[in-house]
Amino acid sequence: MTRKIKKILIANRGEIAVRVMRACRDLDIKSVAVFSECDSTAFHVRIADEAYPIGPSPSNESYLVFDNIIEAARKSGADAIHPGYGFLSENSAFAKRCEEEGLVFIGPKPDTIALLGDKLQAREAARRAGLPLVPGEDIGDVTDTQAALAKAEEIGFPVLVKAAAGGGGKGMRVVNKAEDFEEALQRASSEAKSAFGDGRVFLERYLTHPRHVEIQIMADEHGNVIYLGERECSIQRRHQKVIEESPSPIMTPELRKKMGEAAVSIARETGYLNAGTVEFMVDQDLSFYFLEVNTRLQVEHPVTEMVTGLDLVKGQVYVAEGKELPYGQSDVKLRGHAIECRIYAEDPDSGFMPSTGTLSNYRQPAGPGVRVDAGVTIGSQIPIYYDPMVAKMVVWGSTREEAIGRCKRALEEYRIAGVKTTIGFHQTVLNNERFVAGDISTRFLEEEYPDNKYIVLDDETRRAAAMAVALDKFANERRITLGRRENQIPEQSRWVNVHRRLNLKRMGG
Amino acid sequence: MPQHYLVTIDEQEFDIEVEFVGEGYRVTVNGNEHLVRRFDMESVHSLMLVDHMSYEAFVRGNGEQGQRSVFMLGREIDAHIEDYNLAQLKKAAGMSGPGAVDTTVKAPMPGLVIDIKVSPGDTVSKGQALCIVEAMKMENVIKAPADGTVKAVPAKTGSSVEKGDVLIDIE
In chain A, what percentage of residues exceed pLDDT 90? Predict the structure, then answer.
């Protein structure tokens, strides 16, 4: 059964809302934005065909409120909802609500989201589908601290505390020794509760030098499930990806086929529909373990788009319309190399603390092989309420070497002022010899930069900055002195004129 | 009239003299002379050609006297500027300039205080967790910058804080 989608409401903000709106326009579909109070003039609102307010700035009073979003869909006459990533994208109750309201939810079925969103159930599904699992699994529910500690000791430190409902590094902690366990458990659980409304956590053996490699999948209602290559996402801080690339420097055609087929089998096992990502950890001996399935479009999907030449968001809409995927497994050909740098409004040298404010200047790089998906423009605010990602800068090159070169060039062209960003951090990493050699793991940053110092200023830059400060002060002081001299006489005569006029009025003139 | 400044970046001092000459500025940095052409663009944005080397810079004051933020080459660089002679006088009088020890713990970003782990009178050691500020859905542990005794705790659990608000006062 196919249906034509004519208008899509995007239940999100920032760069991903803009990304989906662009696909809508490519497909000649109308797009509807929703916005909270602080987002009334946000970039995604300006790009959309229509826009509806959905409440106060905190996300639990706006972007996460089912009723407000459904009401906006009703008012606008949208026939489908794209959830983006984050917010309601992996909320099965919301997907179900859409179904009940007769709206197409662009994503998997509610039951699939619920099953794969529960990490414990997802592991069971992976086991049934024959996927290899991380050693030391099945720890289950953790509420009793003493019992949990006993379990952690049984698995052996370092141990990973993870939120059952988690994602994006929230509610996740690595614990290296028993003394730190209780604090980490509580932090992870309370973070999970505030982020997902579910405080359950579980434990996993922490592999010491794994790579994070994930497989993009796409499935339609006609039983077609394909994989679209991998993404290497090992460069992470606080368990959040910051640099992603495709292909992975360690990938071989044989390993890609094995991992791709594993991803397809868990998709079939769970009746998966639409775009999704099966995440794996790959050990140094190239053995791989199932991690989780993300039942949404990923932040880093553009690197796959760059190497496959396919538009994943368009693909999502086709599938949601009930159509057959326009390409099969044999049509998926990988070409060249793509790298994504996530540009966050954060201070890398202060443990990636969020940096909020107004972008007093914003200019994106351009030129051969460069794509920037941004959710901001000059003058945009970076509010405290949401994820501080400003943009994703993605580059393509015919080889990894060319891609790294272009990436460095593009970062140098980037101009952002008003908030601290991760641009300097990316420049440092892209010049790192181990990174250039492809010798990375999820522990890369802590190993290479143990004191969290990323921004290394060379003498020339420091001297130029000092000159900029001195010249700025000099120019300001000069402006003030000159200004005073020029304004002196006219200012007096203006007041004289005003007085004269007032006096004339008083005298009845 | 030439001006003489002392600019400090990462504890490195730059003795800078600036003089307006016809085609631009004569800038002498630690004794080395450069010719700089400087073009003002919108608000804090300028282009400098330092002996023809091109630099785009954004210079912002960040509240405190003499403190500046420079956005340049993808980095934000914190700098401090003062009058050179005044700085020398202060040094002679034993008053330290920018690097004075700050024992008030300020909010590094706007957010919500969700937990306070110390009370006035507590002895704390460097690196000890003082309080937790939630911003952008992440819980950030604010740690003691140095050993000391907690003098006051202006922060309150459940209250919002702005960047720079004093959370904990340590003596």
Answer: 72
